Amino acid sequence: MIYVLDGDSLFPILAANHLFLNYDVDLPKAIIVGVAYGSFDPVTNKRGFDFSAPAADATIEQGGAREFLSFLESELLPEVERRYRADPSRRVLFGQSRSGYMVLYSAFVAPDLFWGRIASNPAFDPGRELFFSAPAQSSRTDLGLVVTSGSRDIPALREAALDWFEVWKDRDDAPWEIKTATIDGGTHAANSSDSYRLGMVWLFNDE
Q1: CATH code assigned to 2-205
Q2: How far apart are the C-alpha atoms of 150 and 161, rounded to whole Å?
Q3: Maximum CA extent, the chain
Q4: How far is CA 98 from CA 85, 118, 189, in A?
Q5: What is the pTM of this model?
Q6: What's the DSSP call for residue 74?
Q7: What is the full DSSP assignment across 42-62?
Q8: Which among 7, 27, 84, 117 has most CB atoms closer than 10 A?
């Protein structure tokens, strides 16, 4: 079961992409769940609030990540898995940019909730220090975290990603196996399918 944040934009791209990855590289068939707001209108689409954690540098329009994670854990995941045949121990979460932040947040705060995670060109603020600190403890030993960064991403995000890559390459306190990668020529928003392919192939080939 693959949960795709920012489903309003990413679900149409990645659901179709997954079909072709099944054809071309034998990626397992999967149910793709687009977690969406139903609109890009800021009145309805609250991704800036939902995909940012409470922090000293958060604005009044940020800080809802804790509640959004609770919604995933206590409402969305149980309801989806009640309706469809799915293995709760094999969930994958994908996010891009601001929703990539949410992928990282869940990895650090609730590592056991998803088996695999892919954060494509993630944001790191507010509360950047969380992502450089020790994550919550995990009871699992099979978790994977993929973080990708486009070589032509927004400079501030690219710099933060490279800092994260450097810090975590030698850390021994991660509850997940880490795969970091640069998408050569990748820009901020246009290469989510490249990150998805790289991340999913790594997760399923690394089992």
Answers
A1: 3.40.50.1820
A2: 9
A3: 47
A4: 29, 13, 11
A5: 0.97
A6: I
A7: TTT--HHHHTS---TT--TT-
A8: 117
List, in order, residues 6 or more apart from 187 with CB less than 8 Å away. 150, 152, 153
Kindly list the strands in the beta sheet with 2-4, ordered across the sheet, starting from the edge strand earlier in the chain.
Answer: 32-34, 2-4, 92-96, 116-120, 144-150, 177-183
Which tokens sit at 135? 């994550």
Cα-based angle 116, 142, 193 (whole degrees, multiple of 5): 20
pLDDT by residue for the chain (207 residues), tens only, comes to 999 999 999 999 999 999 999 999 999 999 999 999 999 999 999 999 999 999 999 999 999 999 999 999 999 999 999 999 889 999 999 999 999 999 999 999 999 999 999 999 999 999 999 999 999 999 999 999 999 999 999 999 999 999 999 999 999 999 999 999 999 999 999 999 999 999 999 999 854
What's the CA gap between 42 and 48, in Å, rounded? 9
- Dist CA 197 CA 140 (whole Å): 24
- Cα separation, 94 vs 6, whole angstroms: 9
Q: Which residues pair with 85 in a beta bridge?
A: none
